[in-house]
Amino acid sequence: MYDLYIANKNYSSWSLRPWVLMRTLDIAFSEKLTPFGNSTEDFATFSPTAKVPCLVENDLTVWDSLSIIEYLAERHSGVWADDAKARAWSRSAAAEMHSGFQTLRNEHPMNVGLRIQPTEVGEALKKDISRIDALWQEGLTSFGGPFLAGDAFTAVDAFFCPVAFRFQTYATTLSPEAEAYKDRLLALPAMQEWQDAALLEPWRDGEHEAEAKAIGEWLADLRSKS
Ligand SMILES: N[C@@H](CCC(=O)N[C@@H](CS)C(=O)NCC(=O)O)C(=O)O
Question: pLDDT digits over 181-195, tens only?
Answer without folding.
Answer: 999 999 999 999 999
